[in-house]
Amino acid sequence: MTSDKLQQILQQGEGLEIEFKTSAFELNKDAFESVCAFLNRRGGHLLLGVNNNGGIEGVIENCIPDIIHNIVTNANNHQKLNPPFYLSPEVIDIDDRKIIHLYIPESSQVHNTNGRIFDRNDDGDFDITKHADQVAKLYLRKQTTYSENNVFPYLELADFKPALFKRIRVLAEHERAGHPWMEMSDDELLRSAGLYKKDPLTGKSGYTLAAALLLGKDETIMNVLPHYKTDAIVRISNPDRFDDRDDIRTNLVDSYDRLMSFIGKHLPDKFYQEGEHRTSLRDRLFREVISNLLIHREFTNAFPAKLIIEKDRVYAENWSRPHGAGLIDPANFAPFPKNPVIAKFFNEMGRVDELGSGVRSTFRYCSVYTPGAHPQFIEGDIFKTVIPLKNIGKTTPVKESGWPQVRRKVRRKFGEKFGESSEKILLVIFRSNGLSASAIGKEVGISSRAVEKQLARLKDLGIIKRVGPDKGGYWEISDLS
């Protein structure tokens, strides 16, 4: 959150979507009552280190790690907050003091804390546990607003893909060692993930639409949602029709893999250093785009989700429940969950981060993948994401202070007539590790087959080496000293 946005919240004062807590050295005992109330109502901002009048008192710096640990641990504890919900505290410096900011989105489920249900109005948090009519209205509003919670009483475990349960457990274990899913039966896993509910209208219980979409067999999904599909299209050589297409009508877990493979098939990659590790820039960027396309979608509408690759852009679009209109500003927007249960499930598998981070990550990675360009997120009935590709075929400017030395070493070792095309290939590798043979060929002006032969020759001469596997690795110039 920016300091300007924070100042606006402070000036606005406490209300339906804003709550202040002092929490100078520990988390207020009633803090999770506000968390619960925000989840049940319309979401909101919880600021720790601020008094009731909006005065900044600050949180003692040495106490911040314990307070944040307390928030994260309790948010994932069924006994404290049920069902659990992922929260991401943010520490903000203002007026030489530190406050902790929590953005809490509206949830698609009814939550309780310490066994009590809280709702929110302009005057604060209210315990409605013993008010049966208010509780019933709350459940009804959630059920009718979030279609992912639609209950299908006749769905059985046999309607889900057995192999998928094994896959998601592996993904979750890789993300967090000792993940609770590892010790659960398939039914226990579904229930713990909020995929089994009671319909307040009919009184019947069953697995939900979210369960079918995440783990259902293809025929199961078509039975509960006949219009469901995701269309992946390439329109470059033939813009009026398509060059390639994948009509995807399977579960969301496999849909993610197929869309990532489709992107990998048709777009070049760029590897770059992130911290101490090299990573695929293309995968980091389109992980966010594809996750957003699959997760934040109104599935009950027949409009198909689309991922379209064109000559100068990639754009994704899906039907949405808008909470605004026009371009989204990453520095000043309030994320709103379209399908919180599905999003939480993807988060457990490590395929999406906390709510709102995807927009910021897409801006960060896009500016590197397509130098000088920025993505667009357009809110409306149809939510659109646009990734420009205008500079994708161009390498970044060569580091002139480094390349001449490399060229001299190669010529000294292998002679002046080393080969013009080989030298151009080395220059491309020097500029940008991780390009495919076809992408290198476009840079040099030769076929990808000719590039592959040259790469094999350069490897045999010890000029370049392969780092990582054949798929997912990259070429690097060897130490020629």
Automatic annotation (TrEMBL):
Species name: Chitinophaga cymbidii
Gene Ontology molecular function terms on file: helicase activity
Gene Ontology biological process: regulation of DNA-templated transcription
The protein, known as: ATP-dependent DNA helicase RecG
Residue ranges of every copy of the Schlafen AlbA-2 domain listed in the record: 14-124
Keyword Hydrolase listed: yes
SUPFAM superfamilies: Winged helix' DNA-binding domain
Highest taxon listed in the record's lineage: Bacteria
Keywords: ATP-binding, Helicase, Hydrolase, Nucleotide-binding
Pfam family, one: SLFN_AlbA_2
InterPro entries: ArsR-like_HTH, RecG_C_sf, Schlafen_AlbA_2_dom, Schlafen_AlbA_2_dom_sf, WH-like_DNA-bd_sf, WH_DNA-bd_sf
Source species taxonomy: Bacteria, Pseudomonadati, Bacteroidota, Chitinophagia, Chitinophagales
